[in-house]
C-alpha cells in the first residue's frame, strides 16, 4: 500500500513543516532504511530527548502537545503516560505498540510500518525513555508479513547503530525491542486482550481497574499506544508544542495531523496525511476524487467498520473527534468508506455483523449472544423472510449492546453502524419483512419485553 495523493499541487507537496508523519516517504513506495532515515533527520529527536530532556519533561511535552491516541479511542497520550508509576524502585516496566490493525477498511499503520519502520522505532525509543520502560513489544497483526520483515530488519539496524540495546547513546539507558506477531483476532486491538495474548493467554479483555499502567504485562506497569500515535512523538520532541498545535485547522479540538483515507467506489482510493479539521467533503472530493462514473454516494463511514453511517449531507463535518460527534458518530481510525447507491444496506450490515460476531471473544453475554442474534435476524430480512417486530428487536439489541452495557467496546462498535443504517435506511429493512407475517407492526416482541 503506497501513499497516494490527488488534487491541487499545493495540497500534495509533503514537507517536514506540514507532514511530520509522511514527508520522508519515498516516491517509489520502498522502505526508508537507517542511512536514508538518518539523512532525513531521523533519530535527531531521540538524540535531543536523551541529551537535553528529563523523562518528566518528555511526558509533559507530549501532554502539552494535545496528542491523542490514533487507534480509534482518542485518549490523550500524555495523560495516559502520566498514569505510569512514579516510584523509581519499580524497574520492570513495558511499552507495547498496538499494531494489531484489524479494523475493516483500515491500513494506515501498515503503511507506516512497511515504509517508515524507523519512525516507529524512534517514537518507541523516546517513549521508553519518558516512561522508563526497559523492554518494548510491537504486537503486530499476523497477516502483516511485509511489515514484520521490515520491522525486524529495522530493529537489527538500530541495534547495530547503538540506538537499541544497552547504554543507548551513552546515556546509561537500556531498551530492548521485539516484534511479536499475533494469532489473528480482532479483539486483540483492545489493549488488555492484547496483553493477555502477548502472555500466551486467551485474548479476552481484562477487568479494569486495575489498569495496565498499574498491572499490565506479567503483572508489571505497562503502557499501550497505537502505531500512528507513537510515530507522532519524534516530531513533537524535535519541533515543539506550538508548531504541532498549529498544524490543525481552525475549529478543530484535536491537534496535529492525521492519516486519513477513503475507499469504496471512489476515483482515487488512498491514504493521505491531512490536518485535523479538514472536512469530509475535502477528503471525499479533493483527495478521493468523488465517486466513479456511474455511481452515486449513498452513505459513508468516517473511520472504519465500527463507526456509524453518515449521509452525503454530512460531508461538511470537520474530520476530528468532536466534529464527527456533532453529526452523530465517531472519528474512529479516520479511514472512511464510501457506500454507493447499488449496495443493499441489509446485506452490507449482515456481512459486517457476521464479522463482528465471529470476532467476539465470547466473554460477556450481551456480545456473545446478542451479535449472533442480530446476524440471524439480518439474514432473515435479507432473504425476505423477516417477521413483524424484527426491526424493533434489532434496535433493542443496539441499545442492549451499547456503551457501558458490555465488558469492552467491541459490541458497542459492532452495533453502531447497525443502528445508524436502520435510522437512515429503514425502508430497505422493512422491505425484507414477509408480507404474510407483517401483521400489526405495533404488536412486536422486543428484548425488553422478554427480559433479555
Automatic annotation (TrEMBL):
Lineage: Bacteria, Pseudomonadati, Pseudomonadota, Gammaproteobacteria, Pseudomonadales
Gene: nuoF
Family annotation (NCBIfam families): nuoF_fam, PRK11278.1, PRK13596.1
UniProtKB keywords: 4Fe-4S, Flavoprotein, FMN, Iron, Iron-sulfur, Metal-binding, NAD, Oxidoreductase, Quinone, Translocase
Summary of the function given for this chain in its UniProt record: NDH-1 shuttles electrons from NADH, via FMN and iron-sulfur (Fe-S) centers, to quinones in the respiratory chain.
Protein source organism: Pseudomonas bijieensis
SUPFAM superfamilies per record: Nqo1 FMN-binding domain-like (SSF142019), Nqo1 middle domain-like (SSF142984), Nqo1C-terminal domain-like (SSF140490)
Cofactor(s) needed for function: FMN; [4Fe-4S] cluster
The EC number(s) this enzyme carries: 7.1.1.-
Record GO terms (molecular function): 4 iron, 4 sulfur cluster binding; FMN binding; metal ion binding; NAD binding; NADH dehydrogenase (ubiquinone) activity; oxidoreductase activity; quinone binding
InterPro entries assigned: NADH-UbQ_OxRdtase_51kDa_CS, NADH-UbQ_OxRdtase_suF, Nuo51_FMN-bd, Nuo51_FMN-bd_sf, Nuop51_4Fe4S-bd, Nuop51_4Fe4S-bd_sf
Catalytic activity: a quinone + NADH + 5 H(+)(in) = a quinol + NAD(+) + 4 H(+)(out)
Complex formation: Composed of 13 different subunits. Subunits NuoCD, E, F, and G constitute the peripheral sector of the complex.
Recorded family membership: Belongs to the complex I 51 kDa subunit family.
Domain of life: Bacteria
NADH-ubiquinone oxidoreductase 51kDa subunit iron-sulphur binding domain segment(s): 346-391
The protein's name: NADH-quinone oxidoreductase subunit F
Keyword Magnesium: no
Pfam families reported in the protein's UniProt record: Complex1_51K, NADH_4Fe-4S
